[in-house]
Structure formats: structure tokens, C-alpha cells
């Protein structure tokens, strides 16, 4: 096997840090959402539906995940009364998912908490670094 270049090694380290950061962010998300009766994964789904109804497949595409894993989260949200299904005029086999009043109440509770948390973390990072990281992650996403 050929030796890794410095660029390849740096990218591998970046990917590893993204995985670790994702785990840490999910843990923080779970702590932020517990009182609202959600997990971080459920919060992501509910947050995407804040802009309007969507199918499970659309949610999976937006999150870059497998439809099956998103469907499991959706099923829990349906059981917990956070989502409802409605007919989809474009595809009878793929119902549209909508937020319930319970989900909207959870989002109202979580909005200020998330903003406070984000402000506290952002205040400890140089703005230029955050902007560079955002550009880098978007470019990486587009390349892969």
C-alpha cells in the first residue's frame, strides 16, 4: 500500500474530528432536548419540518442519511404525538409529515435554549475560524 501523503493524512484527521464532534454535538443535543421530550435526532427531523410538510425520503436526503434510519425516527415521533401524516398529492405511497401542536411547543421551548448555547460556544471561537470551517465543510460535502 502506498504511503499516505500529508494532505491525505490531514484529511483523514479532519474526518475523524468530524465524527468525534458529531458525537459530542449529539450528546449536547440530547441534553438540550430532554425536557422537551425529544432526542437530538428527533429534534433534527422536527426542525426540518418547521418550514413545512415533507416525506421521510425528503428528510433523509436533506440530512444526508439513509431513509430507513430517518423512518425509524419518524415512527417514534408519530407514536409520541409529535408528527402527523397527511395524504401526499404527488405520491400516495409517501405520506407528508407535519408537525403537531406538541412538536411546535417543543420547538418554542428549544429555540431560546439552542440560541443561548450557540452564543456561548461561538463566543469562545474566533468568527473567522467558524466561517472558514463552514466553507471547508461545505466544500468537503460537495466533493464527497
TrEMBL record:
GO molecular function: DNA-binding transcription factor activity
Matches recorded under Pfam families: MarR_2
Span of domain HTH marR-type: 11-142
Domain of life: Bacteria
PROSITE patterns, alphabetized: HTH_MARR_2
SUPFAM superfamilies (UniProt xref): Winged helix' DNA-binding domain (SSF46785)
One BP term from GO: response to stress
Protein name, entry field: Winged helix-turn-helix transcriptional regulator
Source species of the chain: Amycolatopsis echigonensis
Amino acid at each position: 500500500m502506498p504511503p499516505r501523503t500529508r494532505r491525505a493524512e490531514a484529511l483523514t484527521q479532519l474526518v475523524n474530528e468530524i465524527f468525534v464532534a458529531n458525537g459530542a454535538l449529539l450528546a449536547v443535543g440530547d441534553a438540550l432536548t430532554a425536557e422537551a421530550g425529544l432526542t437530538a435526532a428527533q429534534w433534527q427531523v422536527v426542525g426540518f419540518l418547521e418550514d413545512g410538510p415533507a416525506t421521510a425520503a425528503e428528510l433523509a436526503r436533506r440530512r444526508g442519511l439513509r431513509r430507513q434510519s430517518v423512518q425509524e425516527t419518524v415512527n417514534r415521533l408519530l407514536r409520541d404525538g409529535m408528527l402527523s401524516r397527511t395524504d401526499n398529492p404527488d405520491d400516495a405511497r409517501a405520506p407528508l409529515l407535519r408537525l403537531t401542536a406538541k412538536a411546535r411547543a417543543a420547538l418554542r421551548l428549544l429555540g431560546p435554549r439552542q440560541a443561548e448555547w450557540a452564543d456561548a460556544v461561538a463566543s469562545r471561537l474566533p468568527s473567522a475560524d467558524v466561517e472558514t470551517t463552514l466553507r471547508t465543510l461545505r466544500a468537503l460535502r460537495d466533493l464527497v
